[in-house]
Amino acid sequence: MFHTVKRIIDWCGEFKGKLYLGFVMTFFSHMFTAMPLALAAYTVGLLVEAQAGGAAFDSAWIGRSVLLQVGMVLLRFLFDYLRARLQEPISYQLTARDRLAVGDALKRVSLGYFQQVSTGSILNSITTGLSTLENMGIRMIDNFVGGYLNFLVIFLCLAVCSPVTALIALAAAALSLGAMLLISHYSRVNAPVEAQANRDMTGAVIEYARGLAVVKSFGRSGAAMDSVTKAIGDSKRIHQKIEWGYLPGNALHLLALKCGSVGLALAAVLQYLNGSMAFSLMLMFLFFSFQIFASLEPISDSAHTLGVIDDAMDQLDALKGGHFIDKDGRDVKLEHYDIAFQNVDFGYDERQVLKDVSFTIPEGSSTAIVGPSGSGKTTLCSLLARFYDPQGGSIILGGHDLREFTCDSLLRNLSMVFQNVYLFHDTVRANLLFGKPDATEEEMIAAAKKARCHDFILALPNGYDTVIGEGGGTLSGGERQRISIARAILKDAPIIILDEATASIDPENEHLIQDALTELTRGKTVITIAHRLATVRNADQILVISDGRVAERGTHEELLAKDGIYRRFTEIREKAEGWRIDAE
Fold it and tell me: Which residues contact 579 (CB under 8 A, 6 or more apart)?
């Protein structure tokens, strides 16, 4: 429990000063909450003593006590307001910073990280985990620290007025603290279980949403919901079990504090009866006994949450402290863009994909990569973009090993156009400017015209300011592809990677895409993964990848002259492209 409290304080970093000052405001707020009650009790005691024949009661005191109580109430709200102004913004500023830090960290890890860590786990950490910190972290620590700080001051006051009552209060608080430690231990043990249940539920919902089209097409909505239903049911049972587990500690905590209040009241009455305490003071203690532990009672909620917060911070540290693929990289500026693969080996887990691959791509040339599915074509491009590092050999760009680069300094030299285009749920303008955020309006429109998408963009309801659906779902495949090409044109990187960029395009859009690609690749070093002969035949060199190796290399004519894989590939493609339905 204390470890988590310290961890949250350390997390506050440069905001620690505001946090500590907020604790002071909390203390004064609690003090001015208790003082009106004590003052009212003292005033009633004076009245009772006067009625019993004691000292005459000063009627002017009632007016003064009312004014004092009003002033104390106003001061309480003032200190509550100051505490909120100091502490409440801290968690929002910190979680915003950490969300950005996680985003920066995720773009610097190998893509293999996302095969080991599920999307549901990452999403749960960024949303649920950080939301727990955002909504409860500062509040819970204020309850904890402020509660015990307030009790400490009250305990010292009791010790001066009545040591006996102070000892009773201390015993009750100590027993309560023991219960809190028990709750905190239980929370720390169960927080990972609870977090895993949340991750499983998030992952199941994401998978169901992503596969909804397949589910509907096969009429299997009931079967597909089984995993979601199970995950939600497991989450419910786990949370219920955890809540039941908190009951004994909660009951002990509250029982200790309530017994302390009763014991304090009894001690005050006994001291009055034996003449060691004035009636007004005794009455003040009676009233006070119900308020003294008010700042400690909510701490049980903090103890419940501290374990969850601790686990959330573990998840956050794991995301931010992952193995950065470019941790030893630096900002490299290139003067030329020759590419060389030198004895490159690579595999996914136990599956070896590339074996001792070597080839060169001269600056300004075009290279086509062909081969059967699973041969390693896309993997070659992924290694060049440093989505992964090779497990053997090296990749040289412009005379520098890719391991010398930071991810940002490498990727500013590359533009990639994929078969499956992803566009952000934002305006067309924002998606285009993703390639070059500081581009002018004229540059953006010129790129759109080169990519043959300016006309259809103007036909959209709000032109360049039209918001497109998530993933670009409100646009056709050809329109999405052309916007992605315009984005790459705007970036104007010297190396272009085309991964099956025209494979799924309908014939009506194909000539537009080809025109756009011609504009994109003019004067660039181009690497193309393709199956269409029209795309492959004009390349300066063709690499035929088979079984993870470069099986053949040469121009279209040179490879056709051999009786090899490429020749058989072209024969198959020619038959496929010439296929038609017989009219008879």
Answer: none
